[in-house]
Design goal:
CATH class: Alpha Beta
Number of helices: 12
Strand content: 15-25%
CATH architecture: Alpha-Beta Barrel
Number of strands: 12
Helix content: 40-55%
Distance between the termini: 37 Å
Order of helices and strands: EHHEHEHEHHEEEHEHEHEHHHEE
Strand order of the largest sheet: 2-3-4-5-8-9
């Protein structure tokens, strides 16, 4: 049985998934400040924005202006979400060099989200991933509703594994399985991880994206860790959700994930006190208090018994 990884990649989705469902408009300059604070805290993979239609996600309508201003360094990757070749064209023009595509495990959700069936979305992604690979870009593919669909209910794990394998075959460097409405529990994570690995997708190419709608996100992270998964998505401040998924609450908060990993002695490269500064900044711009547990309580110094950050 795999052991917990010694290091974990934290894939920050706050600037994209964290903001896309927020009703308060965040200025481009504030998004750049937020991203700069995330980089300063040690995050090295930050999903910056999405090149979907501005009509669909008004909060991210500044993608063409945002990406050229990102604080670039060889150590930091800024993937952007693209729905099709037109989105890829915009991303390339803005200077992106890493992308994510997104489908789901249920046709009902995929139709509502991107106007296609799952099979149609896979066909649409083929030229996108091929073009990105030819440009030597890093590529990721999401499978949303991997544990349940808000419109059709339970999703068969075997179907999720088959879609993950199809995305791998299309050339995705990494496949991320998303609990879009936060219904999954640890036993389901273990079952799904096993099925996906059986398809030949290595643990080093698998990530999870948990929403904390029903308070199970960290428990699900533990299940993934125990099976050797080494990449988890999180959103600083616990912001976000999916505009097409009724009842979807915020993402797993990055600060809560960092606190857990620190306690487990797993390396991840993120400094909690600096991360909380970023969390407070974005919560201030959104005009509401932090929803995350560690955002409210701070970290903890076992030498003194006092909260930190």
């Amino acid at each position: 049985m795999p052991h917990e990884p010694r290091t974990v990649r934290i894939y920050e989705v706050g600037p994209r998934d964290g903001l896309q469902n927020e009703s308060v408009a965040v200025a481009t300059a504030d998004k750049l400040t937020f991203i700069g604070l995330l980089v300063a805290a040690g995050l090295r993979e930050i999903e910056a924005t999405s090149f979907v239609s501005p009509r669909a996600i008004p909060q991210l309508s500044d993608a063409d202006a945002l990406v050229p201003q990102l604080p670039r360094s060889a150590r930091t990757r800024y993937p952007v979400l693209v729905p099709n070749e037109r989105g890829l064209d915009r991303a390339e023009a803005a200077g992106a060099d890493a992308i994510a595509v997104f489908t789901a495990a249920s046709d009902a959700f995929t139709r509502r989200n991107i106007g296609m069936t799952v099979d149609e979305s896979l066909a649409a992604f083929r030229p996108v991933l091929r073009r990105a690979t030819n440009r030597r870009w890093w590529t990721r593919a999401y499978v949303s509703t991997a544990f349940g669909c808000p419109f059709t209910g339970r999703v068969e794990p075997a179907r999720v594994a088959a879609i993950a394998a199809a995305l791998r075959d299309l050339g995705a460097d990494e496949v991320c399985l998303g609990d879009t409405i936060g219904v999954g529990v640890p036993s389901q994570v273990r079952d799904l991880t096993g099925l996906v690995v059986e398809t030949g997708l290595g643990l080093d190419r698998l990530a999870y994206h948990f929403h904390d709608t029903r308070g199970t996100a960290l428990a699900n992270v533990m299940a993934g860790l125990e099976d050797g998964v080494g990449c988890f998505d999180a959103s600083t401040g616990g912001t976000g959700g999916c505009p097409y998924a009724p009842g979807a609450a915020g993402n797993l908060a990055t600060e809560d994930l960092v606190y857990l990993l620190d306690g487990l002695g797993i390396e991840h490269g993120v400094q909690l006190t600096a991360l909380l500064e970023a969390a407070r900044f974005i919560s201030g711009r959104l005009g509401r208090p932090l929803a995350s547990k560690v955002g409210q309580a701070g970290g903890w110094d076992p030498r003194t018994g006092s909260p930190v950050g």
